[in-house]
Amino acid sequence: MSRLTARIIGVGSYLPEKRLTNSDLAQFVETSDEWIRSRTGIGARHVAADGEFTSDLAAEAGRRALQAAGVPAESIDLLIVATTTPDLVFPSTASIAQHKLGMSGRRIPAFDVQAVCAGFIHAISIADQYIRAGTCWRVMVIGAETVSRILDWNDRGTCILFGDGAGAVILEAERNNGERGILSTHLHADGSLVDLLKTTGGVSRGGPPEGGSATIRMQGNEVFKHAVKALESCVDETLVANGLSKEQIDWLVPHQANIRIIQSTAKRLGMSMNRVAVTLERHGNTSAASVPLALDEVVRDGRIQAGHHVLMIAVGGGFTWGSALVKW
Ligand code: UT7
To answer: Does one domain contain both 22 and 158?
Structure first.
């Protein structure tokens, strides 16, 4: 009998209504539209409203993915939410979103995954294992963030980069010989690089010494260099594992951190930028939500077609990084 493969049968996303442009930011932090655009490629980002939580963004993206797949919420066997900005320390945002999605009746498992900007790729990889093993038939994977809640709005090195949003996919088992669906996933972490990108406080360590709530601190230059290297090696690893040449990759759906990092990954693949999903001009860096938000755009407008090899790739704090190769 042919083996089980996970296929993406629906994609959805959600962005909060409020939009903050670079010029808006320049009103309260010393920066300019020109600096942000030229160094990052970002033009604007969305920010969740007061009383709008990560679970709300997640549930709306999940609803839209169910709609795109044409399957009911009750048919989902497992819900995984990738987030670094959960509603609460516990319970998980996945538990809260499961209820908001009207999916609590069947008591399906729901849990969070935390790998910062690479979280969605980690969640996809976990879902893939459940499907390959025959444990679950249909899985919802969501990447959702309200990064705006952990920003220091006085730190121009970070507050200009991030935004809020959510993206979701529905994965379904299919018996085929690896002809389509998720072909492979590759995950990595290097904990020696923790200090390059982290928050100023937390739970076990307590809040920041200066008081207030924890915010992001980043050594931008170092993160940039490590991100480029990690993504390049991950591209090579994915190609080798699948016996593919770089010319056989039709679409690159990268984490949206910086246009210069995306361009360097595209260059490694010898790909022109019109085969790369780029949303960061309008969304900024939405951490775990960035890959599914970008994927939703290129799937919905029909640019990704059946038979295309789609490479999703991300890097984030931890350091964590990884890829998922899908044959559409
Ligand atoms: O999603 C997780 C992964 N995150 C990333 O991949 C982010 C990776 N890093 C980056 O994208 C870039 O390092 C940044 C966009 C964060 C910074 O760009 P950079 O080219 O590395 O700039 P820099 O930090 O070396 O700063 C250059 C100059 C500095 O001024 P001096 O020291 O040369 O006088 C900064 O103070 O730019 C200044 N600067 C700014 N100026 C205007 C830093 N931030 C700003 C700003 N507006 N927002």
So the answer is: yes
Whether the CB-CB separation of 54 and 93 falls below 8 Å is answered with yes
pLDDT at 261 exceeding the cut of 90: yes
In 3D space, the residue among 185, 105, 172 whose CA is nearest the CA of residue 141 turns out to be 172
What spacing in Å lies between the alpha carbon of 177 and ligand 1's midpoint?
46
At 175 the pLDDT is 94
Residues 168 and 217 in one domain: no
- Which atom of ligand 1 is nearest to 156's Cα? 48
Residue 236 has pLDDT above 90, yes or no: yes
Sign for the CA dihedral angle at 149, 151, 153, 154 comes to positive
Q: Does the annotation count 154 as an active-site position?
A: no
pLDDT given at position 234: 96
Final residue in a domain of this structure, among 112, 144, 175: 175
Whether pLDDT at 1 is above 90: no
Here the CATH number for the domain that contains residue 75 is: 3.40.47.10
Nearest CA to ligand 1 atom 12: 220
pLDDT for the residue 210: 87
How many separate domains does the chain show? 2
Q: 198 is in which domain, residue-wise?
A: 181-327
pLDDT of residue 223: 96
C-beta separation of 280 from 256 below 8 A: yes
Surface-to-core class of residue 72, CB atoms within 10 Å of its CB (0-12 exposed, 13-18 middle, 19+ buried): exposed
Domain termination residue (choose one: 175, 207, 241): 175
Does the beta carbon of 83 sit less than 6 angstroms from any atom of ligand 1? no
Across all residues in the chain, what is the average pLDDT? 97
pLDDT digits (tens, 9 = 90+) for 2-15: 899 999 999 999 99
Three-state DSSP state, 142: strand
